[in-house]
Specification:
By secondary structure, the chain is of the alpha/beta class. It is 25% helix and 19% strand. The protein is built from 6 helices and 11 strands.
Length: 212
């Protein structure tokens, strides 16, 4: 967990890691530092002042939010890694292409995007900021599909688990009102504002496979 001193804008860490918030899975430490990892994140909403109030994000303003998420991203993502951003990258930067292009250039990794409902897919900054842009991305061998807005399981092209964004603080629930384990939300509100490693996703998918 963490809290923010709104006078100074400083975040004070109490006890928090991305891995514990996403179920306690650990990244495979046996991999070489030179090998590429795959990461997932969604709904960063860089530059979006109003999202702080809408979703109760613990930041004094968008500038501080941006810098915090950039720092957390680069703590875990290596330059050779692949990062799938599942949509709603940025808002509220006044159409300043250079501003958002510069921010994206500061983020480690080879960035790919699944388009969100707020993403201007024809904008130059979006086209240049992501080496791949798709509506969804299937990971057949791993058993899941990535998309911005969660889809019904029977609509998934690959696998039986939907990795998604869009719903921010909320979770997809089953008919009993409990979180549905077939849906993995990687909105930053659920990931401590940092990308989630493929190992974490695979562990959660495997639990669904074995009925855990």
């Amino acid at each position: 967990m963490f809290c923010v001193n709104h006078d100074t804008g400083m975040i004070h860490w109490l006890h928090m890691t991305v891995l514990t918030s996403m179920g306690g899975a650990t990244v495979d430490q046996s991999r070489s530092a030179n090998m590429a990892d795959i990461w997932f994140i969604s709904d960063t909403h860089f530059y979006h002042e109003n999202i702080i109030q809408y979703c109760g994000r613990p930041f004094k303003d968008a500038e501080f939010m941006n810098e915090f998420m950039i720092e957390e991203w680069n703590k875990v993502v290596k330059p050779q890694d692949h990062v799938w951003h599942l949509g709603d990258v940025a808002m509220g930067f006044g159409g300043n292409q250079g501003k958002i292009t510069n921010l994206l250039s500061r983020l480690n990794g080879k960035k790919r995007a699944c388009v969100g409902n707020h993403d201007p897919i024809k904008a130059q900054w979006f086209q240049q900021g992501f080496e791949k842009i798709e509506l969804w991305r299937g990971f057949k061998d791993e058993g899941f599909t990535c998309v911005h807005i969660p889809l019904q399981i029977e609509q998934l092209r690959d696998g039986h688990v939907c990795v998604h964004g869009h719903i921010h603080n909320n979770l997809v629930t089953d008919k009993f009102g409990k979180p549905d384990p077939r849906y993995i939300c990687v909105c930053v509100e659920h990931t401590n504002y940092a990308p989630v490693n493929m190992d974490v996703i695979k562990e959660k998918v495997n639990k669904v496979r074995i009925g855990g």
